[in-house]
UniProtKB/TrEMBL annotation:
Superkingdom per UniProt: Bacteria
Record's protein name: SDR family oxidoreductase
Basic and acidic residues: compositionally biased ranges: 265-277
Ranges for domain Ketoreductase: 11-190
Source organism (scientific name): Conexibacter stalactiti
Keyword Repeat assigned: no
């Protein structure tokens, strides 16, 4: 007998970085399943516009994932308006590309603050609610760059490796409590964050809706490792068994070293300009703690 999906009707879901990209697509997919959704992002006006377009009673809230107080208010207000939290999707993230030796300290710190420390903060806030209830599902959006370091995105890769390890460790700690975890690892996703990236061989860009559907599937049929597309999981597992020089040769054959390293910086200018316009320029240390350009993960 085929396994039946877990119903998502009435489930309360909070999504960070929900105004655009993967976050928006995930909210839309969950609303279609009957879930009650709150989206959080730094730009409240854009978040409210997204919520209005999504409909379904979507709650729009301002959120800076680098500010623990802001994150606490986001989760608390989600519960006040919608009910006890069932699912947190830690999706907000940024990616800066270029040679590691040329990366600014502010750029590195911003990626760590948003991509890693933001996920840590959100995970703790979710678990503080899940553990007493012995139920809940934590979804952390990482990247295939969390399984293989990608040239041109060294710090980004480092943050995504950390998210993968963090989520695996949490999974071990909550085993037997009724709480579930998922780590989502997409290849590059067709969002503004992926502007100017080069295509590898064999696997092209996926759509935000592909990642959203994979997240919904992981909630309906719980599983920890969520690769998008699925065949990337098989490639990753096979690669882990091969000698390093072989896996590196395969990577070069697939041109994975050009995906970020060969990015068209002019094509990425709009994304980077929007990040700066959010009063969160990655090059200005004073703004680092406030940065959260609202696109969802690219997964690289």
């Amino acid at each position: 007998m085929a396994k039946q999906p877990r119903p998502l009707t009435g489930k309360v879901v909070a999504i960070t970085g929900g105004a655009r990209g993967i976050g928006r697509a995930t909210a839309a997919a969950l609303i279609r399943k009957g879930a009650k959704v709150a989206i959080g992002d730094l730009d409240l006006a854009v978040t409210e516009q997204t919520a209005a377009a999504l409909g379904g009673g979507t709650v729009a809230l301002q959120l800076d994932v680098t500010d623990a107080g802001s994150f606490e208010r986001f989760v608390a207000e989600t519960e006040r308006q919608l009910g006890p939290l069932d699912v947190l999707v830690n999706n907000a993230g940024i990616m800066l590309v270029g040679p590691f030796s040329e990366e600014t300290a502010a750029g590195a710190q911003a990626q760590v603050d948003i991509n890693l420390l933001g996920v840590i903060t959100g995970s703790k806030l979710a678990l503080a609610r899940f553990l007493p209830r012995r139920t809940g599902h934590l979804v952390n959006v990482a990247s295939t760059a969390g399984k293989a370091g990608i040239p041109g995105g060294a710090t980004y890769s480092a943050t995504k490796f950390a998210v993968v390890g963090l989520t695996e460790a949490i999974r071990g700690e909550v085993r037997g409590t009724g709480i579930e975890t998922s780590v989502v690892m997409p290849v590059p996703v067709r969002t503004e964050l992926a502007a100017g990236l080069q295509k590898g061989r064999g696997v092209g860009l996926v759509e935000p809706e592909d990642v959203a559907d994979a997240i919904v599937d992981a909630l309906e049929f719980p599983r920890h490792d969520v690769f998008v597309p699925r065949q990337i999981g098989r490639i990753t597992r096979i690669g882990a068994l091969l000698p390093r020089k072989w896996t590196e040769a395969v990577g070069r054959a697939m041109r994975t070293d050009h995906v970020l390293g060969g990015a068209d910086r002019s094509a990425r200018a709009a994304y980077e300009q929007r990040a700066k316009a959010s009063d969160a320029a990655v090059s200005e240390p004073a703004a680092e703690k406030r940065e959260q350009p609202a696109s969802a993960e690219v997964g690289a």
